[in-house]
């Protein structure tokens, strides 16, 4: 049992400090293994100067929310290590400005993709935590990092150009109508030996008519601009919607794309005034079951006794 976690908010400061130390260490490991000699603790000042150019110590302190003495101390270390330089302000030579050194500028092409992947990995970990509950989010983040450390997630993704592509969730776009069918057929073939049923043919051949014209929509997950996942939201009544056709191409899985697609569908259902959303799935899709339950879905008896899909053996609902 995690003793600190069992004390709840009483140990919040200690746990946040511990998590901060852990993440700083994880980032230092990432830097070391990617050949970068900068320290993780320098990031706020380094990134500020990268974005803003030359900035005074006072303005750096204000922008980062760090005390003036702390910024001065960090700046001295970074100057000693060759990451930043001091130069007089052109408006007032008595004011010293901090700016990135040539060494830092030369490191940027290597640093930027590392920063991007760190952000993507952390966003994915946070997306798997329970929203609106800081203590549970903290506990789940600690658990996820314990299972697969941040440095491992980042380094694995950096090693695979396909996995390191930018992920974007978009609403229905007619140019991807063919991709909707292809991705779902790929999913059916991968998990159910291409078991296509009557209902599949109707929805995949005419997604606009089956979903959009009835008040629903379709979401796509894009990786580097290419569609790699889909999720459909079907309107049943004004109060009831169905999430279906959730699929991510195997090569792009484990990046949180499926979760983001389902979350997008649930958010859209709320916007449309739905009170309940249901889905049908299969128990052998273990990871999918875990995802749905994390998002609040609960298994209930099928209202019709059994599903119209031969491959479905579980019916789940979530109240919005």
UniProtKB/TrEMBL annotation:
InterPro entries: Acyl_CoA_acyltransferase, Bact_Acetyltransf, GNAT_dom, HTH_MarR-typ, WH-like_DNA-bd_sf, WH_DNA-bd_sf. PROSITE patterns: GNAT, HTH_MARR_2. It comes from Kiloniella litopenaei. GO terms for molecular function: acyltransferase activity, transferring groups other than amino-acyl groups; DNA-binding transcription factor activity. Residues 167-320 form the N-acetyltransferase domain. Gene3D superfamilies: 3.40.630.30, Winged helix-like DNA-binding domain superfamily/Winged helix DNA-binding domain. Keywords: Acyltransferase, Transferase. Pfam families: Acetyltransf_1, MarR. Residues 9-143 form the HTH marR-type domain. This is N-acetyltransferase domain-containing protein.
